[in-house]
UniProtKB/TrEMBL annotation:
The modification 4-aspartylphosphate is found at D57. Its EC number is 3.1.1.61, 3.5.1.44. This is Protein-glutamate methylesterase/protein-glutamine glutaminase. Involved in chemotaxis. Part of a chemotaxis signal transduction system that modulates chemotaxis in response to various stimuli. Catalyzes the demethylation of specific methylglutamate residues introduced into the chemoreceptors (methyl-accepting chemotaxis proteins or MCP) by CheR. Also mediates the irreversible deamidation of specific glutamine residues to glutamic acid. It holds the Pfam family Response_reg.
Length: 362
């Protein structure tokens, strides 16, 4: 018999409480065991019910959600799925929450009359996957946060003046992951010793409103320039381009060099933007002058595209299971044969692989 996972909902809206409870309880492996309207009540409810997973509203009155989440992950690490609104403020707080160990986020429900079945599928899948996160992953988050001052908040320094790059990229690295891969992308790229010749294309499963915040956040952390990609721009060295939320990103080879194409075709592998769309285009445009890296995330988006890249002699890599929050996407790529066994690596080794690719004569 399949395990039934215990869920606590933390949200100040009675309507959202009711909607979430009905949707989550409809899944045979999920049961809502408690509801709290604020962090003080949440502490008591969590102690009483010992949930396997928590849904947490991003923005609530009289609540500092970031402080609550940090304290939870330091003192009683529990998988958390953030319930987010698609606002600039909401996206910023959600990105901080993911940095602090939240497993994933889901958009706050709206227009349920038309989208109820889709929303039920999305939220139950994400909550179920979060509930299955390993104790080792939670312990790693706890250790990382315990090493920080309790009152600290993630700080991103404003980017220093960066040189304008005008050298067209000859080689590119395509990186893909799901929303849970935000912290993995950040950690991997922070570990790279950049030489300035790198050109990166990044697709993550993010909705509109989140990618600009994420790109700005990375831009403040890295010596290269990171931006949300726009249709028709050239791919230059010393740049990282993030697929706009809710839109596919491709790269095309034109007479004047590699060019980014942003389009709104239907979802691929259930996602838009899709990692498969990016990887397939990189395979066509660059062949062996490309590398592909697939990071933690649920589902199998990107696996087939990465296999196509490998068949066209690109270097392909996958995050290993031990360091992945959810080994769905990289695991699918490995099972499909898209990645040689020696290229299934933890994040730090992936940082080294990315460095080597750009300085090698591959």
């Amino acid at each position: 018999m399949s395990k039934v996972y215990r869920v606590v909902i933390v949200d100040d809206s009675k309507l959202i409480q009711t909607v979430l409870r009905d949707l989550l309880d409809s899944h045979p492996q999920l049961t809502v065991v408690g509801i709290a309207e604020d962090p003080h009540e949440a502490r008591d409810v969590i102690k009483q019910t010992e949930p396997d997973v928590i849904t947490l509203d991003v923005e609530m009155p009289r609540m500092n959600g970031i402080t609550f989440l940090r304290n939870l992950m330091r003192l009683r690490p529990t998988p958390v799925v953030m319930i987010s609104t698609l606002t600039s403020a909401g996206s910023g707080v959600t990105l901080q929450a993911l940095e602090l160990g939240a497993v994933d986020f889901v958009e706050k429900p709206h227009d349920l009359d038309r989208n109820i079945d889709h929303y039920r599928e999305v939220i139950t899948e994400k909550v179920l996957q979060a509930a299955r996160v390993s104790g080792a992953t939670l312990s790693a988050v706890q250790q990382r946060l315990s090493a920080q001052p309790a009152a600290s908040t993630p700080v991103v320094s404003p980017p220093s003046e960066k040189p304008v790059r005008q050298t067209l990229a000859r080689k590119i690295c395509a990186i893909g992951g799901s929303t849970g891969g935000l912290e993995a992308v950040t950690s991997m790229l922070k570990g790279v010793r950049f030489s300035g010749v790198e050109a990166l294309l990044i697709t993550l499963h993010l909705p509109a409103g989140f990618t600009a915040s994420f790109a700005n956040r990375l831009n403040g952390l890295l010596p290269i320039t990171v931006k949300e990609a726009t249709d028709g721009e050239k791919v230059y060295q010393g740049m990282a381009y993030v697929a706009p939320g809710g839109r596919h990103m491709e790269v095309l080879r034109k007479p004047g060099g590699l060019e980014i194409h942003i389009q709104d075709d239907p979802p691929v592998s259930r996602h838009r933007p899709s990692v498969d769309v990016l990887f397939d285009s990189v395979s066509r445009a660059c062949g062996k002058q490309a590398a592909g890296i697939i990071l933690t995330g649920m589902g199998k988006d990107g696996a087939a595209g990465l296999l196509t890249m490998r068949e066209n002699r690109a270097l392909t890599y996958a995050q290993d299971e031990a360091t992945s929050v959810v080994w769905g996407m990289p695991g699918s790529a490995v099972k499909m044969g898209a990645v040689p066994p020696e290229h299934v690596q933890p994040l730090l080794q992936l940082s080294r692989a990315l460095e080597h690719f750009f300085v090698s004569s591959h």
